[in-house]
Specification:
Blueprint lengths: L4 H6 L3 H17 L3 H9 L3 E2 L2 E2 L2 H26 L6 H18 L1 H6 L9 H28 L5 H22 L8 H9 L2
Helix pairs in contact: 2-5, 2-7, 2-8, 3-4, 4-7, 5-7, 5-9, 7-8
């Protein structure tokens, strides 16, 4: 009784965006699980005589988020009303996440088992993933605010942020399917859908 018919009808539009953000965060959390192990065991972590810890790669996400967030804010501001719609931004950002995890197939095809891969593959993953994050996350938060019924705006944001825990839960489930030597099918299964 606290919502109007129009408000209830708008809620349908958040469902595909919630599913998209859950799966994008599944990819995001690969960085702190499977890719952290990969960085420790299979990546040449020596850079100009300094050893880079696997955890240091995660800081790339924060570094790139500041840069890409500022750049995209400028781009959306310049485009004004000509910028992509919120669903289009969510789609573009979700595609970036899929491409990011697909990038990780290349080092498993290029480097033989036991060879140390270039750290640039992880850097590439973080660049593309963070571009997706900089597009998806603000668009989704904005959409959740826009479609929220007036009486339940706070609850709607809480539900939207549950996408993070859903993505983390999916990561915990999917990580059980990770097997050394079967990385390519593992990454394809996340990047293609």
């Amino acid at each position: 009784p606290k919502t109007t018919k129009e408000e209830r009808a708008r809620l349908v539009y958040i469902i595909p965006m919630f599913i998209a953000v859950s799966f994008t965060l599944l990819v995001n959390y690969q960085a702190t699980t499977v890719l952290a192990i990969y960085a420790e065991t299979n990546v040449n972590r020596n850079l100009f005589g300094f050893e880079i810890t696997p955890a240091a790669y995660w800081t790339l996400n924060a570094f790139f988020a500041v840069i890409f967030g500022a750049v995209l804010t400028g781009i959306w501001g310049k485009l004004g009303k000509k910028q992509p719609s919120t669903p289009a931004k969510m789609g573009i950002g979700t595609i970036c996440y899929g491409l990011a995890i697909l990038i990780m197939i290349a080092p498993f095809r290029i480097y033989a088992p036991g060879m140390k891969a270039s750290p640039l593959w992880l850097v590439g993953f973080y660049v593309v993933m963070t571009v997706g994050e900089a597009i998806c996350y603000p668009a989704g938060t904005s959409a959740a605010t826009a479609v929220a019924p007036l009486a339940f705006s706070t609850q709607m944001m809480t539900i939207w942020f549950m996408g993070q825990s859903t993505g983390a839960s999916l990561c915990a489930l999917v990580a059980n399917f990770y097997k050394e030597g079967a990385e390519i099918p593992y990454f394809v299964s996340m990047g293609i859908p």
